[in-house]
Amino acid sequence: MNPLLDGVLFRDVFTTKEMRTVFGETAFVDRFLEVEAALARAEAEIGIVPEDAATTITNHASVASIDMADVAANVDKLGLFSMSILEAWTDELGPAGEYVHWGASTQDVSDTAMVLLLRDAHEVLLRDVVAVRDQLATLADQYRETPMVGRTQYANGPPVTFGLKAATWVDELDRHVSRLLNIEEQLFVAQLAGASGTLSALGDDGIQVLDLFADELDLGVPRVGWTASRDRFAAFLNVLALVARTLARIAREILFLNRPEIDELEETVPEDELGSSTNPHKENPVFSQHTVGLARLVRSHAGTMHECLESMGERDRSAWYVEFALLPESCCYLARMLENTNRNLDGLTVRSNQMDRNLRASGALVLSEAVLFALARHVGRQTAHSILHKNAMRAVQSDRDFLACLKADDRVTDHLSEAQLESLVDPDNYTGLAEPFVDRVLDGLTDLGDP
After folding, report:
1. Is residue 88 a part of any domain in this protein?
2. Do residues 291 and 342 share a domain?
3. Could you tell me if 386 and 292 lie in one domain?
4. How far apart are CA 23 and CA 323, in angstroms?
5. How many domains does the chain have?
6. How many angstroms separate the CA atoms of 247 and 169, rounded?
7. Does residue 29 lie in a domain region?
8. CA angle, 439 as apex, 438 and 444 as ends, to 5°?
């Protein structure tokens, strides 16, 4: 594991205790031995391995049955983690050790062990993505009617509601929930192909062993070995990168709206947070900043994983061994991002009064679209746009109120009364279909069913 994930100083910045456990060395060895035991049982079922040997192998298929000091010594000598585990383990099995790893390659076992670890990690990540989605759904519902400045292309635009903004986050995360569910069939697949993908060491029994082996582990059966095809893992990291990007987008928006000159959101600050080391007045928005930074790591790992798709021949160690860094680290980073986001949302303060103040301080200009289409019904859209644009530029350049400019223009007041104009530039009257859109999102969320 990466020392940034294991060390005392950084581990709670880069991952979570739960995900460290999923990918800890103990867990990997347990999964590795679990795969070997499943293979032995599958082969025993059709008579390749004696039943008593398969039973002995299964009964000793845990890290408790192996001396990790021996494994460490083997690694120093062999430099290969898989053979280092096997040599230390088979010494403990007696005669049954002769039937361990029958007909398989070490990559078969390590790939399948990684799939089992990813299944454990996937369960945690899916749970936490749903938790973030559901927290945001609560915000979307609670603030469906709360107007705020709509910000388009880094400038103020027509009003939205905070509920609508949150609903776009919910909808995006819900698509990621679907992606995580859909990837299961592709990802949770056994690997048993032998040295070159032909499974020749098992002869005519190979397909039957493969079926039984996958069934023992509750994994899918591949149509052909995927030793040189690493797209399953790349597709998974693509999904993780998409989730990371969404979490970073939410974090960036919180950081922006948390700025003191905007002050529409207040990021959660842990009670024991010391703030700035040199500015006693500051409470830094750490959750969101760390989330944005971690997203960069997940995205970069997804890109590196794509380089691993270019395997040469039937097996290419240069392509697959780096996965032992990319896959665990990506899951660990995303776990921390999800934990950060969930904790941030737990205490996030929504300043609806400040949203209203900022919206009204932006003046009537942000409601120019409302006036445009009201006037267009009388003079046509292009003519109305020209009239409104000239008035808007006059207001901006002379620092006059846009509404006052409109009221002074006969081309406008010949068709729209002062009362109509005042109603048109009231932001409460121009949030469009924000509320129905929120409802559409909340009503359409992916149902995971009963746990």
Report:
1. no
2. yes
3. no
4. 13
5. 2
6. 9
7. no
8. 105
Q: Answer yes or no: do 267 and 370 share one domain.
A: no
Within a domain: 149:
yes
Task: Write out the chain's pLDDT in tens, 451 residues.
Answer: 565 667 777 778 899 999 999 999 999 999 999 999 999 999 999 999 999 999 999 999 999 989 888 888 988 888 778 888 888 898 889 999 999 999 999 999 999 999 999 999 999 999 999 999 999 999 999 999 999 999 999 889 999 999 999 999 999 999 999 999 999 999 999 999 998 999 999 999 999 999 999 999 999 999 999 999 999 999 999 999 999 999 999 999 999 999 999 999 999 987 766 555 454 455 788 999 999 999 999 999 999 999 989 888 888 888 888 999 999 999 999 999 999 999 999 999 999 999 999 999 988 999 999 999 999 999 999 999 999 999 999 999 998 899 999 999 999 999 999 999 999 999 999 999 999 999 999 999 998 875 4
Provide the residue range defining the domain that includes 407.
364-424
In whole angstroms, give the CA distance from residue 338 to residue 132.
Answer: 7
How far does CA 313 lie from the centroid of its chain? Answer: 33
Beta bridge partners of 117: none
For residues 347 and 372, membership in a common domain is answered with no
State the DSSP string of 83-140.
Answer: HHHHHHHHHHHGGGGGGTTTT--HHHHHHHHHHHHHHHHHHHHHHHHHHHHHHHHHHH
Can you give the CATH number for the domain in which 265 is found? 1.20.200.10
- The kind and range of the H/E element at 397 are helix 381-398
122 and 181 inside one domain: yes
Helix intervals (H) in 188-285: 206-216, 231-258
Residues 139 and 284 in one domain: yes
279, part of any domain:
yes
Q: Is the Cβ–Cβ distance between 172 and 224 less than 8 Å?
A: no
- Does one domain contain both 418 and 320? no
